[in-house]
């Protein structure tokens, strides 16, 4: 696979790790739900690694853009996986949500697993603890009527998940009635459509912007960052009005 058309952007590399920026819309690896897809971040990362295997050590949903880390060998992947399980990895996301949030808070709301196989939808799923801390960074109010109000309010927030449940951030923001803009499954359709029409693209306004963890080999604290991609920043222009 050619590096010339590689959609990933390298952010960090050492003998054991490769960190990249993944654009929105790209799957990390093959999924039974998207069997028709032929392009994956895993393939592109392998191309960046000289054709050698790489090992994803954490999840990043298809519509979410941002920082993605691969281990360059199985041993490093195992160590970093254990670090994740031990809660020693701090993750930071940037999101645009409907409404004005409080300045900061903790969402402590258990979640049931969302099965990949929709045929299991009726099965009882156990609740698992899930916690997300948030911090409001900015607010805006635009003179557009979307849901019966003469204006519409939005917040730019920093989200820090303390647990790693599937779709945790998207489900938690829905739970507190501040869904993420562009979330087709957990968001508000009218708001999603407004931004899709205004900016010509209906992306999920969620970006992984930072990871902080002890290096799996050296033990030194590693802080990786990724700036949001242009399509994300374009929508954030509403905060300048």
TrEMBL record:
Its EC number is 5.4.99.26. Responsible for synthesis of pseudouridine from uracil-65 in transfer RNAs. The keyword tRNA processing applies. Coiled coil: none annotated. InterPro entries: PsdUridine_synth_cat_dom_sf, PsdUridine_synth_RluA-like_CS, PsdUridine_synth_RsuA/RluA, RluA_PseudoU_synthase. Residues 17-175 form the Pseudouridine synthase RsuA/RluA-like domain. It is an enzyme of class 5 (isomerase). GO terms for biological process: enzyme-directed rRNA pseudouridine synthesis; tRNA processing. PANTHER family: MITOCHONDRIAL RNA PSEUDOURIDINE SYNTHASE, TRNA PSEUDOURIDINE SYNTHASE C. One of its GO terms (molecular function) is tRNA pseudouridine(65) synthase activity. Residues 107-131 are annotated as: Disordered. The keyword Isomerase applies. It catalyses: uridine(65) in tRNA = pseudouridine(65) in tRNA. Keywords: Isomerase, tRNA processing. This is tRNA pseudouridine synthase C. It comes from Methylomonas koyamae.
